[in-house]
Amino acid sequence: MDNKDVISVLNDLIETSKDGEKGFAECADDVKEPRLQSFFVQRAQDCASAAAELQQLVRSLGGDPETSSSVSGALHRGWVDLKSMITGKSTEAILNECERGEDAALKSYRSALEKDLPASVRSVLEQQLQGVQRNHDQVKALRDSARAS
């Protein structure tokens, strides 16, 4: 892959990270339980850090980094807002939507890692994928716990 293609892949993942940041921040606003609020705030900060790391990689490759979330992420958040107005903002419903967002993030990272990326970029993406997987697994566990309650 040439630099332009690598930059494009990274910019797509910056949008994904920004989607996660905004999604987790909205979840923090929507839940009532302080422990969950804290969890979501920390995950939003983790996503912001991941985006910043990717933006630095883009700059190091001579590109202009993406600075916003994706249109599809904004549409998903709008759908979640509409759905929660209709069904109420139960903890389980919020966690379900959060897990769907993390499913999308996992798919984006895995797709990016299927490409022929420079080793330095691949290393960062593999490390970030582990963080996305951890987020997903934690959200799923929290959702399962909320469902069981």
UniProtKB/TrEMBL annotation:
Domain DUF2383, chain residue ranges per copy: 5-115
Gene3D superfamilies noted in UniProt: 1.20.1260.10
Domain of life: Bacteria
SUPFAM superfamilies documented for this protein: Ferritin-like
Record's protein name: PA2169 family four-helix-bundle protein
Source species of the chain: Phytopseudomonas seleniipraecipitans
